[in-house]
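$ ./design --mode recover --in tokens.txt
reading tokens...
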């Protein structure tokens, strides 16, 4: 029996709440306006067409300066899509909201991506994805999409201790946190309890140590892992551990993930699993 939650690409965070950030609108209200003809819609369409064509450098050039500074480089921006083999198959602009600051575009998207647990291609329909389009000082318009990490990698590193296999499937880098997608597989003959919010750490080769965010904000803290996940033999669970960080610069890094503690039913002592170093 496999116990896991479906882990979509990092950018596919439900985006409707973005309305409050973009234009101060109630996030649960979808009283949209007709899509306008002209400048902002042209830029929005060019951006989505670039994503669909996998021209990520072109899409990066259509972002506003704040967003480009967030990603640092077009290469970083591209990893949001290439790391998970995410593709935009089709889209439809079905509405907007706007005020004097700019436009919020509501988009219906069909995407495909590689599931980090099964490594199989999955198709997903996203009925509401929200983007912002804002006027620049030169009279042009630029896109804002704040749901992405600024870089992500899919190392697929793993280690097994005491019959517990731990696999790191993805690292996604946000402004002040690193999101790790981790799969736990019980290959032993006895149940095992996972308590990774105890002593789990993500160490960077330069010496920094990051610990999981353990607030009860379940958007950032994996509730099942926080409370303790009990895996029967042959069971598997894929979850997310978010590590709090300072704002990281863009240089290449190496990370080692140590997951602890875990405890076998009837075992004498808890144990830890140290994964091989991965590049991030």
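writing sequence...
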């Amino acid at each position: 029996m496999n116990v896991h939650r479906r882990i979509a690409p990092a950018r596919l965070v439900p985006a409707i709440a973005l309305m409050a950030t973009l234009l101060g609108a109630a996030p649960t209200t979808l009283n949209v306006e007709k899509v306008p003809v002209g400048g902002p819609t042209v830029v929005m369409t060019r951006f989505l067409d670039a994503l669909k064509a996998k021209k990520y450098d072109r899409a990066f050039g259509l972002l506003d300066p704040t967003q480009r500074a967030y990603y640092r480089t077009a290469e970083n921006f591209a990893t949001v899509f290439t790391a998970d083999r995410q593709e935009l198959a089709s889209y439809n602009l079905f509405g907007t909201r706007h005020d004097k600051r700019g436009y919020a575009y509501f988009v219906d998207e069909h995407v495909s991506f590689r599931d980090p647990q099964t490594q199989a291609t999955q198709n997903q329909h996203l009925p509401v994805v929200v983007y912002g389009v804002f006027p620049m000082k030169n009279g042009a318009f630029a896109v804002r999409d704040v749901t992405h990490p600024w870089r992500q990698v899919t190392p697929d590193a793993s280690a097994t201790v005491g019959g517990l296999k731990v696999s790191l499937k993805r690292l996604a880098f946000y402004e002040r946190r690193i999101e790790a997608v981790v799969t736990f597989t019980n290959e032993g003959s006895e149940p095992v309890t996972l308590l990774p919010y105890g002593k789990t750490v993500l160490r960077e080769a330069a010496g920094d140590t990051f610990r999981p965010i353990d607030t009860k904000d379940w958007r950032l803290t994996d509730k099942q892992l926080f409370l303790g996940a009990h895996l029967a033999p042959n069971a598997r669970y894929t979850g997310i551990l978010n590590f709090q960080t300072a704002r990281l610069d863009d240089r290449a890094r190496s990370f080692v993930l140590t997951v602890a503690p875990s405890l076998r039913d009837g075992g004498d002592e808890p144990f830890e699993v140290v994964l091989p170093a991965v590049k991030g």
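exit 0
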